[in-house]
Amino acid sequence: MDLVKGAAKVARAMVACMAMLACMGIVPAHAQRVDPDIRVLRALLEKAEPEIDLARAKLVIDQLIDPTIDIEGTLAKLDVMAAAVRASAGPRAKSSEIAQVLRSYLYDAGPWNNRQPFRFDLEGDPLGHKIAGKLLTNYLATKKGNCVSMPTLFVLLAQRLGLEATFAASPNHYFVKYRDETGRWYNLETTSGGHPRRDESYQRDTPMTPQALKNGIYMRPLSKKESVATVMVDVLLDHYKDAGKPEKVIAIADLALEHYPSDIDAMLDKGYAYYLLIRDFQNKYPMPRDIPPEERQRFRALERNNRLWYEKAEALGWREPDAGADARYMEMLKSVKSN
């Protein structure tokens, strides 16, 4: 009986100790309650590359933002779209011919789409700031997209058609990388009808450092796992930034970086999350001298982490956009849309 009481006392002490450590942020990951979103994302990211279904991954992540999303129904809709492209291309079509039919199916007006093609939302949300505009189901419903939703649909359909297509990034922008039957890679700009664009064009319109190119954070085709970690998870990170949940942002960014260590978006989101925590601290204590002694260590840790993650991004070649970056980006989008 004394042993049972002793064990119970030890257990209570351990629980109290773990609670204290949790408050300090140093509880081992396995000892903490696993956040449901983290559990879902980890299951996706721990799949072997050939087992990753990008369409399902996208919808599972989007459903964390909008629980009303019908995953199976949307997958069935994608299958119907892919079947229509395959039938139009014919049984003996080469990869490049199927890609051209897919491009026309999505972006040219015709009876196959009731003369309502998918188009870039130049007037409504051209910079892709609205979370809803990045959800696949919203894009399918409205046919108005941005540089997240538009390449996403193209890649998901291309992969269902057996084409070698994936995502690539330039600063604040995603596009499609496609390799044809000859082994040649093309950049396809879905915001302007899926037409090819040269590397030099992206490097001119969305400037990137030689260091960034050397480190592969821009312009290269992403693996499926990298695509999930950055293109798809980044929408969830934006959702939690908008919701004012920086701790959640940090936890999700950590998971993304675990599987894609060069994920610039996750680094920047993590740095921004620490800024939000610093801002909350400063709202509570307007002057540094107002911070109680027992909380100063945490405040300094927040400042260090805020600097750390921006410095990590800069070390890979990322640079802070200047004041005119958004205006130049808009001009680029208008230019490619008119070509």
UniProtKB/TrEMBL annotation:
Protein name in the entry: Regulator of sirC expression with transglutaminase-like and TPR domain
Family, as annotated: Belongs to the UPF0162 family.
Lineage, broadest ranks: Bacteria, Pseudomonadati, Pseudomonadota, Betaproteobacteria, Burkholderiales
Species name: Variovorax soli
Pfam family, any one: Transglut_core2
InterPro entries, A to Z: SirB1_N
Signal sequence extent: 1-31
Keyword annotations from UniProtKB, A to Z: Signal
Ranges where the Protein SirB1 N-terminal domain occurs: 75-192
